[in-house]
Amino acid sequence: MKQPAKNRFSAKKAARFGLLVALALIFSYAESQIPPFFAVPGMKIGLTNVVVLTALYKMGSGPAMGVNLLRIFLVGLLFGNPFSVVYSLSGGMLSTVVMILLRKSGRFRLITVSVAGGVFHNVGQIAAAAVIMQTAQLGWYMVVLWFTGMLTGALIGVLGYEMVRRLPDALFE
Amino acid sequence: MKKRGMDVLLVAALVLAGVGMAVLLWPREPGEAVQVRVDGTVTAEYPLSASLRTRIEGVGGYNELVIEDGSARLEEADCPDRICVRTGRIRQKGQSIICLPHKVVIEIVGAAPSPAPDVTGR
């Protein structure tokens, strides 16, 4: 897993990493501009996860986590508030950790990894809401967002699979 | 293909867990009263049979609670996302409407409290 020291801080790597963070940031912003016309409040497509999946499969666990963390703080700083950062952080970290572990196990396809990521993103957000609101009465949201998480996770998984398949590995070496 | 088998297994487990939660948590009983909580503390409770409109002072803003025809909704709010307003009506025990920005939760509960004094005159 350890990368040679000469590669770790190369300008090429930094540029690529910055590119992915910028892309994730733009996706986050674009998605925030979509009016929530879905029947379920809190349901999101999770476009950003395409970038996280790409980072995960092309660059590894560390960059995937890094891209998502930076994206969350930047979005919070630019468009959000401390509360929105807490929700994103809780959902984003849980989902990224789950996806990293599933990928490391080597037993699951990218789409399945994304489905689990979608579910646990929502689990993390609801857990944060339960703590902040001091209520356990979020069960109904949990059930609905559990399934919408699977659905959007599958959609993003298909997109992410195509991204990872089509982007040449040479771009990330 | 062992790999595919594991995928099916994980997705099946996720679906099963979701269905299990739905069975456990889906609200079935009709509720009797509406409980209002702001920042975790109960601030008011109204019977669902009432017909009233009242203003909830949340953290940093207000939400307007309307109870009529045995259901409750947040009709108006000055929060930025207005998700609480879009949530619509709730009437069954355990259902809730949540305004995250104002830390306001209204929840349908079982036991009916005595009617609040300001309701009697309608």
Can you tell me the overall shape of chain B? Answer: elongated
Largest sheet of chain A: none
Q: How confident is the prediction overall: mean pLDDT of chain A?
A: 87
* Overall 3D shape of chain A: globular
Overall CATH class of chain A: Mainly Alpha
> Architecture of chain A, according to CATH?
Orthogonal Bundle
Instruction: Give the fraction of residues assigned to helices of chain A.
Output: over 70%
Number of strands of chain B: 7
Tally of separate helices of chain A: 7
Structural class of chain A: mainly alpha
Question: How would you describe this structure to a colleague?
Answer:
The complex is a heterodimer of chains A (173) and B (122). With 173 residues, chain A is mainly alpha-helical. Chain A has one domain: Orthogonal Bundle (Arp2/3 complex 21 kDa subunit ARPC3), CATH 1.10.1760. Chain A is built from 7 helices and no strands. Chain A is globular. In chain B, 24% of the residues lie in helices and 37% in strands. Chain B has 2 helices and 7 strands; from the N terminus they run H-E-E-E-E-E-H-E-E. In chain B, strand 4 (61-68) and strand 5 form a beta hairpin. Chain B is elongated and about 55 Å long. Chain B starts with a helix and ends in a 13-residue tail after the last strand.
